[in-house]
Amino acid sequence: MLAFLTQRLLQIIPTVILVSMLIFGLQQLLPGDPALIMAGEERDPKVLAEIREQYKLDQPIPVQYLYWVKGVLSGNLGESMRLKAPVAALVRDKLPVTLQLAAMALLIAICIGIPAGIISAVKRDTAWDYAANLFALWGLSTPNFWLGILMIFLFSVTLGWLPASGYVKLDEDWKMSLATTIMPAFVLGNALAAVLMRHTRGAMLQAMGADYVRTARAKGLEERSVVLKHALRNAMTPVVTLLALDFGTLLSGAVLTEQIFTIPGFGKLIVDAVFNRDYAVVQGVVLVTSSVYIFLNLMADIAYLLINPRLRG
Q1: Domains in the chain, ordered, with CATH?
Q2: What would the DSSP string read from start to end of 56-85?
Q3: How many other CB atoms are found less than 10 A from the CB of residue 263?
Q4: DSSP, residue by residue, 178-191
Q5: Torsion over CA: 204, 207, 209, 213 (sign)
Q6: What pTM did the predictor assign?
Q7: What is the pLDDT of residues 163-208, one digit of tens each?
Q8: Which of 23, 43, 76, 158 sits most deeply, having the most CB atoms within 10 A of its CB?
Q9: How far is CA 280 from the centre of its chain?
Q10: From CA 211, how far away is CA 191, in angstroms rounded?
């Protein structure tokens, strides 16, 4: 296990460096001059020169990159040109919002997708199997923006059960916080639940045809024990890996959903930053999201080893 972790950490270091170079390099391809945006209507050459000097925009791109990396290593992600606030502070403020939304979406997907996949595999070629596959097809085919608008119309406008938009922090009012995030969380978790159902079904069908399952049945074990203790544990190996990776996908995929429900998370932050050419914010948000995704990859590998002891040797 220790040798595996050491090897993975050594692989992560060049990956993070490459990602940081891509983030900074691709950022330069965005059209427009941030100094012109910050100067406003009065584009005095002296003011433009001072802005470029303050934010190192007058330096060559490799030099700008080194300045940025030096700041990142010291915990300084730069300063927002538009908001005049440290990017690290903006990340600390917005990240918990998107993390809460992604965690709720993941929980919804687990509660729906995994049981549906198990039932579909156990009840293969029955009405339960067809219903589960129909649900998966619906989940994969439904656009997030359409489902979000439909849920707002039904549960907010027509029934008045849930607020249509906005966000309340958990530490302020946890009930209202859940009320404001349950619809966007379901929108995000809907497609993931369909993917989980398909993967769980396939993994369960493969596990239930294995020799150890046939041996367990030959010993006279109850079918419930065979399914849950023998087939399910082995089938969960690829599913857990998928969950860890998809949590990172939820963080980056929350952009459209947060816009629909007006949730002040990472999505809204990066959209506003792109429109305002706020380079430091875009770089900081993408870097944090990429780092979380890389970390989740490592956690997925560790979970893979913990679930399947045969891989530890």
Answers
A1: 97-266 (1.10.3720.10)
A2: TTTS-HHHHHHHHHHHHHTT---B-TTT-S
A3: 23
A4: HHHHHHHHHHHHHH
A5: negative
A6: 0.78
A7: 888 888 888 888 898 998 899 999 888 888 888 898 888 888 888 8
A8: 23
A9: 21
A10: 33
